[in-house]
Design goal:
Elements lengths: L13 E5 L4 H10 L5 E6 L2 H13 L3 E6 L5 H15 L4 E4 L14 H26 L6 E5 L12 H21 L5 E7 L5 H4 L8 H10 L9 H12 L10 E4 L10
Parallel strand pairs: 1-2, 1-4, 2-3, 4-5, 5-6, 6-7
Helix pairs in contact: 1-2, 1-8, 3-4, 4-5
Length: 263
Amino acid sequence: MNPPPHLDAQAPRRTLVTGAGQGIGRAIALKLAGPGARLALYGRRSDTLEETAVLCRARGAEALAFPGDVTDERTIAATAASLEAAWGALDGLVNNAGVPSFGTVETTAPDAWRHVLEVNLTGPYLVSRAALPLLRRGEAPAIVHVASNLGLVALKNAAAYCASKAGLVNLTRAMALDHAAEGIRVNAVCPGAVATPMLLVDRRDGIDPRRLAEELARVHPVGRIAEPEEVAAAVVFLLSPACPFATGAVLAVDGGSTAGFAR
């Protein structure tokens, strides 16, 4: 079998990014933004989405903001219909939206458990399901799921989050097998701790963000936590035609935290 024809890795692409209002999602959008790029930004908050859109437009990209929740099937379907009307196809999808959760099986209420699974696992399923018909019409189409190093190893007091991200890791592999013959690649990145508002700002547990960052730095062999742009670089690489033979890959971008036993 001959390899696919060469595609310019820097060519403008049509990409949908969920959770694009801040943190890793915003960093991914900005990495993708450039002259001719077309970006669909999906997230819960219209104000932060529009801030991301403005930043992307300043880099020469077309950026459309779609406020919505990844658990809302009707909003997702309406977004896909709008993109079909505007662009006709998608070349890339990044399932980045997610929520944290802390607690054991006993201390996590059933409603909280369901919410974490719905956002972190069912959300990527719903968005992917709506986007696949558009991706089939795209050029070198690719999906990247943003999972977590806690989808590869576990952490005490994070049962729902670990379960949801482990499910997303194996969903990546299942989708890669299901859609390989269609030419749609599906990969995942598994970040370690990242300096995002979700981790360091939007906390309700009274933990001092600076102290938390210092503690998390110690469990990463590189001695620090990641910046969103470092995770975004891996996502954009897996998304691009520069990586044509990778599908079903699960890339740890975690400063070595899952490479071996903690010291």
